[in-house]
Specification:
elongated, 5-stranded antiparallel β-sheet, alpha+beta, single chain
């Protein structure tokens, strides 16, 4: 036993979640698995080979670890459990590279959401339609997360709350603060409105064209935010080949520069123009 990697139990958070110290790395680690916390006692030991361990995670930031330990004393253990189940689902279905702050933000949010629901305090989500339309995958995962919360606590989770959960999922996946996620969704909405106005009509929100546009703009925002640069070999030609689309792309680039406080290269503008050309001339395909 002494030669086998093991975890020393610090405390059981619930029947399914244990806070332990990884003896190999000397880091505090969360262990998740059905029944793993049942009968677990401080200073006890769990071998790494224990079949009940379904998931582990370590908070690398000492600040996050301290905050998480404080959180454990303030929040219902069942909230921690359902939060980690949701985080596990997001990790498996969206990206494993989640911002570890979600382990703090999500249970805090769910605890407050349950308080509002139980006390019939309605909070309208003004971005619900945009969140559902602009982020269909994240919204679908958030809807299932809401189902987990409803089943665990015997409450009815309103659709507005699904929107708030979507924001937290986006935030963790993109490593962007929640406030910035809201800002970027506003920016997407404004960009779509600009493009529709210059196109001369709305783009059906259920169409493939709309999904392509949103996907392209989201990746463009992310590239601009991170300062990434991809040379566009058609950049100089596009100004003359598709002047209208390039002009609209330049307006979109100006709007992104203003909202993101980041410069947008001519190469990125040209990529947007290429996408707009296909969108504006779809009937000519």
């Amino acid at each position: 036993m002494s030669d086998e990697r093991r975890f020393e139990i610090i405390r059981a958070l619930s029947n399914n979640v244990v806070l332990a110290n990884d003896v190999l790395t000397n880091k505090e680690t969360i262990l998740m698995g059905k029944g793993i916390g049942f009968g677990a006692k401080p200073n006890g030991s769990i071998p790494a080979s224990d079949g009940r361990i379904e998931k582990t995670f370590t908070l690398e930031s000492q600040q996050h670890l301290s905050q998480y330990q404080m959180l454990l004393n303030q929040i219902d253990p069942d909230v921690i459990t359902v939060s980690e189940r949701i985080i596990s689902m997001v990790s498996e279905e969206l990206t494993p590279n989640l911002n570890e702050h979600i382990h703090l933000a999500l249970p805090s949010h769910i605890e407050y959401a349950l308080y509002r629901i139980r006390h019939e305090i309605a909070i309208e989500n003004p971005f619900l339609w945009e969140l559902q339309t602009l982020n269909p995958k994240e919204f679908e995962i958030a809807a299932r997360a809401a189902g987990m919360i409803a089943d665990s606590f015997g409450v009815e989770v309103p659709e507005d709350e699904i929107g708030f959960l979507t924001i937290h999922i986006q935030s963790a996946a993109a490593h962007v603060p929640v406030g910035n996620v809201v800002q970027y969704n506003h920016l997407l909405k404004d960009l779509v409105a600009l493009i529709e106005h210059r196109r001369g009509g709305p783009i059906p929100k259920e169409s493939v064209d709309y999904l392509r546009l949103i996907t392209h703009l989201r990746f463009a925002i992310e590239r601009i935010r991170q300062g990434e640069h991809s040379p566009n070999p058609f950049r100089d030609k596009l100004k003359d080949m598709v002047p209208h689309e390039y002009s609209v792309a330049r307006e979109a680039a100006d709007l992104m520069e203003k909202k993101l406080n980041k410069s947008v290269t001519d190469d990125e503008t040209a990529y947007i123009a290429m996408h707009l050309y296909r969108l504006f001339n779809k009937d000519l395909d």
